[in-house]
Amino acid sequence: MNDRANQKRSWWQRLSSGLKRTSASIGGAISDIVSKRKLDAATIDELEEVLIRADLGVATAARIAAAVGEGRHDKTVTPDEVKKILAAEVETILAPAAQPLVIEGGARPFVILVVGVNGSGKTTTIGKLAAKLRGEGRKVMLAAGDTFRAAAIDQLKIWGERSGSPVVASSPGADSASLAFEALEKARAQALDVLILDTAGRLQNKAALMGELEKIIRVIKKLDASAPHAVLLVLDATVGQNALSQVEEFSRTAGVTGLVMTKLDGTARGGILVAIAAKHRLPIHFIGVGEGLDDLAPFQAGDFARAIAGIAT
Fold first, then answer.
1. Which of 2, 21, 95, 231 is the most buried (most CB within 10 A)?
2. How far is CA 29 from the centre of its chain?
3. How far is 175 from 178, CA to CA, in rounded Å?
4. Which residues pair with 283 in a beta bridge?
Protein backbone atom coordinates (compact mmCIF):
# COMPACT_ATOMS: atom_id res chain seq x y z
CA MET A 1 0.00 0.00 0.00
CA ASN A 2 1.50 3.39 -1.00
CA ASP A 3 1.78 6.44 1.28
CA ARG A 4 -1.32 8.10 -0.14
CA ALA A 5 -3.41 4.97 0.40
CA ASN A 6 -1.97 4.64 3.91
CA GLN A 7 -2.89 8.24 4.69
CA LYS A 8 -6.43 7.72 3.42
CA ARG A 9 -6.76 4.54 5.45
CA SER A 10 -5.40 6.28 8.54
CA TRP A 11 -7.89 9.14 8.11
CA TRP A 12 -10.77 6.72 7.55
CA GLN A 13 -9.86 4.90 10.77
CA ARG A 14 -9.83 8.19 12.69
CA LEU A 15 -13.09 9.32 11.08
CA SER A 16 -14.97 6.06 11.69
CA SER A 17 -13.58 5.90 15.23
CA GLY A 18 -14.46 9.55 15.81
CA LEU A 19 -18.03 9.01 14.66
CA LYS A 20 -18.34 5.75 16.62
CA ARG A 21 -20.73 7.25 19.18
CA THR A 22 -23.02 8.59 16.46
CA SER A 23 -22.95 5.43 14.34
CA ALA A 24 -23.42 3.16 17.39
CA SER A 25 -26.42 5.19 18.50
CA ILE A 26 -28.05 5.08 15.06
CA GLY A 27 -26.96 1.53 14.19
CA GLY A 28 -28.08 0.03 17.48
CA ALA A 29 -31.51 1.58 17.16
CA ILE A 30 -31.86 0.45 13.52
CA SER A 31 -31.01 -3.13 14.50
CA ASP A 32 -33.53 -3.07 17.34
CA ILE A 33 -36.28 -1.82 15.05
CA VAL A 34 -35.86 -3.87 11.88
CA SER A 35 -34.56 -7.16 13.29
CA LYS A 36 -37.76 -8.13 15.05
CA ARG A 37 -40.49 -7.67 12.47
CA LYS A 38 -41.41 -6.92 8.89
CA LEU A 39 -41.40 -3.36 7.62
CA ASP A 40 -44.72 -1.59 8.19
CA ALA A 41 -45.92 1.95 8.85
CA ALA A 42 -45.10 1.71 12.57
CA THR A 43 -41.56 0.50 11.84
CA ILE A 44 -40.99 3.37 9.42
CA ASP A 45 -42.25 5.85 12.04
CA GLU A 46 -39.89 4.41 14.65
CA LEU A 47 -36.98 4.62 12.24
CA GLU A 48 -37.82 8.26 11.53
CA GLU A 49 -37.85 8.98 15.28
CA VAL A 50 -34.38 7.43 15.66
CA LEU A 51 -32.99 9.66 12.92
CA ILE A 52 -34.59 12.78 14.41
CA ARG A 53 -33.06 11.95 17.80
CA ALA A 54 -29.67 11.63 16.05
CA ASP A 55 -30.05 15.31 15.05
CA LEU A 56 -30.31 14.65 11.30
CA GLY A 57 -33.30 17.01 11.15
CA VAL A 58 -37.00 16.31 10.66
CA ALA A 59 -37.04 16.71 6.87
CA THR A 60 -33.94 14.55 6.40
CA ALA A 61 -35.24 11.87 8.76
CA ALA A 62 -38.53 11.72 6.86
CA ARG A 63 -36.70 11.49 3.55
CA ILE A 64 -34.49 8.60 4.70
CA ALA A 65 -37.36 6.73 6.34
CA ALA A 66 -39.43 7.06 3.14
CA ALA A 67 -36.49 5.74 1.09
CA VAL A 68 -36.22 2.71 3.38
CA GLY A 69 -39.95 2.02 3.07
CA GLU A 70 -40.14 2.40 -0.69
CA GLY A 71 -41.13 -0.95 -2.22
CA ARG A 72 -40.39 -2.83 1.00
CA HIS A 73 -43.67 -2.77 2.93
CA ASP A 74 -44.45 -6.06 4.68
CA LYS A 75 -41.01 -7.35 3.76
CA THR A 76 -38.11 -8.28 5.99
CA VAL A 77 -35.07 -6.03 5.76
CA THR A 78 -31.72 -6.38 7.43
CA PRO A 79 -30.00 -3.66 9.46
CA ASP A 80 -27.21 -3.60 6.86
CA GLU A 81 -29.72 -2.84 4.08
CA VAL A 82 -31.12 0.06 6.08
CA LYS A 83 -27.61 1.37 6.82
CA LYS A 84 -26.77 1.32 3.09
CA ILE A 85 -29.90 3.32 2.29
CA LEU A 86 -29.08 5.72 5.13
CA ALA A 87 -25.52 6.22 3.84
CA ALA A 88 -26.71 6.78 0.25
CA GLU A 89 -29.32 9.37 1.27
CA VAL A 90 -26.91 11.19 3.61
CA GLU A 91 -24.25 11.31 0.88
CA THR A 92 -26.79 12.79 -1.56
CA ILE A 93 -27.54 15.58 0.92
CA LEU A 94 -23.90 16.23 1.82
CA ALA A 95 -22.27 15.98 -1.62
CA PRO A 96 -23.10 19.56 -2.74
CA ALA A 97 -21.65 20.91 0.54
CA ALA A 98 -18.32 19.07 0.29
CA GLN A 99 -16.24 21.90 -1.13
CA PRO A 100 -12.57 22.63 -0.45
CA LEU A 101 -11.42 25.98 0.87
CA VAL A 102 -9.93 27.63 -2.21
CA ILE A 103 -7.18 30.18 -1.54
CA GLU A 104 -7.37 32.42 -4.58
CA GLY A 105 -4.05 33.70 -5.84
CA GLY A 106 -5.44 37.11 -6.82
CA ALA A 107 -5.87 38.33 -3.25
CA ARG A 108 -2.69 38.94 -1.26
CA PRO A 109 -3.00 38.36 1.51
CA PHE A 110 -6.06 36.12 1.30
CA VAL A 111 -7.92 37.13 4.47
CA ILE A 112 -9.74 34.41 6.42
CA LEU A 113 -11.97 35.60 9.27
CA VAL A 114 -12.72 32.81 11.75
CA VAL A 115 -15.86 33.15 13.88
CA GLY A 116 -17.80 31.02 16.37
CA VAL A 117 -18.86 30.80 20.00
CA ASN A 118 -16.54 30.20 22.93
CA GLY A 119 -15.40 26.61 23.22
CA SER A 120 -16.17 25.67 19.62
CA GLY A 121 -12.49 25.02 18.86
CA LYS A 122 -11.81 28.19 16.87
CA THR A 123 -8.24 28.84 17.98
CA THR A 124 -7.21 25.19 17.64
CA THR A 125 -8.78 25.08 14.18
CA ILE A 126 -6.82 28.19 13.17
CA GLY A 127 -3.58 26.54 14.29
CA LYS A 128 -4.30 23.36 12.35
CA LEU A 129 -5.35 25.34 9.28
CA ALA A 130 -2.18 27.44 9.46
CA ALA A 131 -0.07 24.27 9.64
CA LYS A 132 -1.92 22.84 6.64
CA LEU A 133 -1.42 26.00 4.57
CA ARG A 134 2.25 26.24 5.58
CA GLY A 135 2.64 22.63 4.49
CA GLU A 136 1.39 23.71 1.06
CA GLY A 137 4.19 26.27 0.92
CA ARG A 138 2.14 29.38 1.73
CA LYS A 139 3.33 32.22 3.94
CA VAL A 140 0.77 32.65 6.73
CA MET A 141 0.20 35.24 9.46
CA LEU A 142 -2.16 34.84 12.44
CA ALA A 143 -3.95 37.66 14.28
CA ALA A 144 -5.08 37.18 17.89
CA GLY A 145 -8.37 39.06 17.57
CA ASP A 146 -9.96 37.36 20.59
CA THR A 147 -8.70 40.13 22.86
CA PHE A 148 -11.20 39.35 25.61
CA ARG A 149 -9.32 36.29 26.82
CA ALA A 150 -5.61 36.26 27.63
CA ALA A 151 -5.70 32.47 27.28
CA ALA A 152 -6.87 32.75 23.67
CA ILE A 153 -3.99 35.10 22.85
CA ASP A 154 -1.47 32.76 24.48
CA GLN A 155 -2.97 29.73 22.75
CA LEU A 156 -2.73 31.37 19.34
CA LYS A 157 0.93 32.28 19.98
CA ILE A 158 1.65 28.61 20.72
CA TRP A 159 -0.07 27.56 17.49
CA GLY A 160 1.92 30.22 15.65
CA GLU A 161 5.16 28.66 16.90
CA ARG A 162 3.99 25.14 16.02
CA SER A 163 3.00 26.11 12.50
CA GLY A 164 5.88 28.52 11.88
CA SER A 165 3.52 31.48 11.42
CA PRO A 166 4.09 35.00 12.84
CA VAL A 167 1.36 36.20 15.22
CA VAL A 168 0.09 39.76 15.60
CA ALA A 169 -1.22 40.21 19.15
CA SER A 170 -1.96 42.93 21.65
CA SER A 171 -2.74 43.05 25.35
CA PRO A 172 -6.02 41.63 26.68
CA GLY A 173 -8.84 44.14 26.33
CA ALA A 174 -7.35 45.87 23.26
CA ASP A 175 -9.64 46.89 20.40
CA SER A 176 -9.95 43.85 18.14
CA ALA A 177 -10.86 45.88 15.04
CA SER A 178 -7.67 47.97 15.41
CA LEU A 179 -5.65 44.79 15.80
CA ALA A 180 -7.21 43.32 12.64
CA PHE A 181 -6.33 46.52 10.73
CA GLU A 182 -2.74 46.41 12.01
CA ALA A 183 -2.38 42.72 11.09
CA LEU A 184 -3.63 43.31 7.54
CA GLU A 185 -1.21 46.22 7.12
CA LYS A 186 1.69 44.02 8.26
CA ALA A 187 0.65 41.05 6.12
CA ARG A 188 0.45 43.31 3.06
CA ALA A 189 3.81 44.93 3.79
CA GLN A 190 5.43 41.49 4.07
CA ALA A 191 3.67 40.19 0.92
CA LEU A 192 2.25 37.21 2.80
CA ASP A 193 -0.16 34.79 1.18
CA VAL A 194 -2.74 34.29 3.93
CA LEU A 195 -3.88 36.21 7.02
CA ILE A 196 -6.07 34.29 9.47
CA LEU A 197 -7.98 36.46 11.97
CA ASP A 198 -9.19 34.96 15.24
CA THR A 199 -12.22 36.62 16.88
CA ALA A 200 -13.81 36.53 20.31
CA GLY A 201 -16.20 33.66 21.04
CA ARG A 202 -19.34 35.64 20.60
CA LEU A 203 -22.52 34.13 21.92
CA GLN A 204 -25.04 34.47 19.12
CA ASN A 205 -27.53 36.34 21.33
CA LYS A 206 -25.09 39.06 22.38
CA ALA A 207 -25.89 42.05 20.17
CA ALA A 208 -22.91 44.14 21.30
CA LEU A 209 -20.41 41.39 20.50
CA MET A 210 -22.01 40.76 17.12
CA GLY A 211 -21.74 44.50 16.50
CA GLU A 212 -18.02 44.31 17.21
CA LEU A 213 -17.66 41.54 14.64
CA GLU A 214 -19.35 43.80 12.08
CA LYS A 215 -16.87 46.54 13.05
CA ILE A 216 -13.89 44.26 12.36
CA ILE A 217 -15.24 43.58 8.88
CA ARG A 218 -15.85 47.30 8.20
CA VAL A 219 -12.32 48.21 9.32
CA ILE A 220 -10.48 45.62 7.21
CA LYS A 221 -12.56 46.65 4.17
CA LYS A 222 -10.95 50.10 4.44
CA LEU A 223 -7.65 48.45 3.49
CA ASP A 224 -9.05 45.86 1.10
CA ALA A 225 -12.64 46.25 -0.10
CA SER A 226 -12.77 42.58 -1.09
CA ALA A 227 -11.76 41.33 2.40
CA PRO A 228 -12.47 39.12 4.19
CA HIS A 229 -12.16 36.66 1.34
CA ALA A 230 -13.47 33.77 3.44
CA VAL A 231 -15.50 33.76 6.67
CA LEU A 232 -15.24 30.39 8.38
CA LEU A 233 -17.71 29.47 11.12
CA VAL A 234 -16.34 26.86 13.51
CA LEU A 235 -19.10 24.69 15.00
CA ASP A 236 -18.90 22.29 17.93
CA ALA A 237 -20.78 19.09 17.06
CA THR A 238 -21.59 18.42 20.72
CA VAL A 239 -24.09 21.32 20.85
CA GLY A 240 -26.47 19.52 18.48
CA GLN A 241 -29.46 21.56 17.34
CA ASN A 242 -28.04 24.79 18.76
CA ALA A 243 -25.53 24.75 15.89
CA LEU A 244 -28.37 25.56 13.47
CA SER A 245 -29.11 28.88 15.19
CA GLN A 246 -25.38 29.67 15.27
CA VAL A 247 -25.21 29.26 11.49
CA GLU A 248 -28.19 31.60 11.05
CA GLU A 249 -26.88 34.32 13.39
CA PHE A 250 -23.27 34.36 12.19
CA SER A 251 -24.36 34.23 8.54
CA ARG A 252 -26.53 37.30 9.10
CA THR A 253 -23.77 39.21 10.91
CA ALA A 254 -20.57 38.14 9.18
CA GLY A 255 -21.61 36.63 5.85
CA VAL A 256 -20.33 33.11 6.56
CA THR A 257 -18.84 31.52 3.44
CA GLY A 258 -17.97 28.07 4.81
CA LEU A 259 -18.11 25.77 7.83
CA VAL A 260 -15.71 23.75 9.95
CA MET A 261 -17.23 21.13 12.29
CA THR A 262 -15.13 20.10 15.29
CA LYS A 263 -15.42 17.61 18.17
CA LEU A 264 -17.25 14.97 16.16
CA ASP A 265 -15.42 12.39 18.26
CA GLY A 266 -17.03 13.67 21.46
CA THR A 267 -20.69 13.22 20.63
CA ALA A 268 -23.47 10.94 19.41
CA ARG A 269 -24.93 13.98 17.63
CA GLY A 270 -22.78 13.97 14.49
CA GLY A 271 -25.98 13.90 12.45
CA ILE A 272 -26.32 17.64 13.03
CA LEU A 273 -23.92 18.22 10.14
CA VAL A 274 -26.47 16.58 7.82
CA ALA A 275 -29.26 18.82 9.13
CA ILE A 276 -27.10 21.92 8.62
CA ALA A 277 -26.19 20.91 5.06
CA ALA A 278 -29.83 20.24 4.21
CA LYS A 279 -31.05 23.56 5.62
CA HIS A 280 -28.30 26.10 4.92
CA ARG A 281 -26.46 24.67 1.90
CA LEU A 282 -23.17 26.26 2.94
CA PRO A 283 -19.85 24.70 1.94
CA ILE A 284 -18.38 22.39 4.58
CA HIS A 285 -14.62 22.77 4.20
CA PHE A 286 -13.17 20.74 7.08
CA ILE A 287 -14.13 18.44 9.92
CA GLY A 288 -12.18 17.63 13.06
CA VAL A 289 -12.19 14.33 14.92
CA GLY A 290 -9.39 14.82 17.42
CA GLU A 291 -6.79 17.14 18.90
CA GLY A 292 -3.83 16.20 16.69
CA LEU A 293 -2.33 18.54 14.11
CA ASP A 294 -3.58 16.32 11.28
CA ASP A 295 -7.05 15.69 12.75
CA LEU A 296 -8.52 18.50 10.66
CA ALA A 297 -9.24 17.13 7.21
CA PRO A 298 -11.07 18.23 4.07
CA PHE A 299 -14.71 17.16 4.24
CA GLN A 300 -15.59 14.12 2.11
CA ALA A 301 -19.33 13.44 1.82
CA GLY A 302 -19.08 9.73 1.00
CA ASP A 303 -16.65 8.94 3.81
CA PHE A 304 -18.75 10.84 6.35
CA ALA A 305 -21.98 9.17 5.19
CA ARG A 306 -20.51 5.67 5.50
CA ALA A 307 -18.94 6.46 8.88
CA ILE A 308 -22.17 7.84 10.32
CA ALA A 309 -24.06 4.76 9.13
CA GLY A 310 -21.41 2.48 10.62
CA ILE A 311 -20.45 0.88 7.31
CA ALA A 312 -16.91 -0.47 7.14
CA THR A 313 -14.81 0.45 4.13
1. 231
2. 26
3. 5
4. none
